[in-house]
Amino acid sequence: MTTLIIIVVVVVVIALWVMGIYNGLVKCRNNRENAFANIDVQLKQRYDLIPQLVATVKGYAAHEKETLENVINARNAAVNAIGINDKIKADEAVTSALAGLKVTLEAYPDLKANQNFLQLQNEVSDIENKLAASRRFFNSATRELNNAVQTFPAVLFAGSFGFHTEPMFEIAQEQRATLEKAPEISF
Length: 187
What we know:
The protein is mainly alpha-helical. Helix content is about 75%, strand content about 0%.
């Protein structure tokens, strides 16, 4: 009888221990999803501003049709992206397209003085700052999840529970090269 009680106690302790590991992994996954939900809100605001920005630019830069179409196409793809990883890739395309638009805009001093454009540019800049903060929080939550999945003893159970490491929200290689390049200053 004592042996049976010891076996039951050991089984219960192991079951509670495994449940604790599972619950910890679920909390990390939910924290990551919540962090991405914050990014998603900022992305939605960004995507809502893009048509206004493009419409304002169209009047000044009618012959920059390809650049404007790239921005709109990237925005539409991002709006229709499903899942965290697809949204991350789509956002990289939007960021790249907006960078192309910024380069194009440097050639239009009248546009840069337009009040509507300046207001939209300030709103986009504000959203970009909020996105940067949200991405940092997301990457922190992703790191926490990845650490939980990869460390002992959770590593023994994570795969069988359906948990795996997730990618960080990083800058695409093309954008990294652009950002690492020193700015050109001309007078």
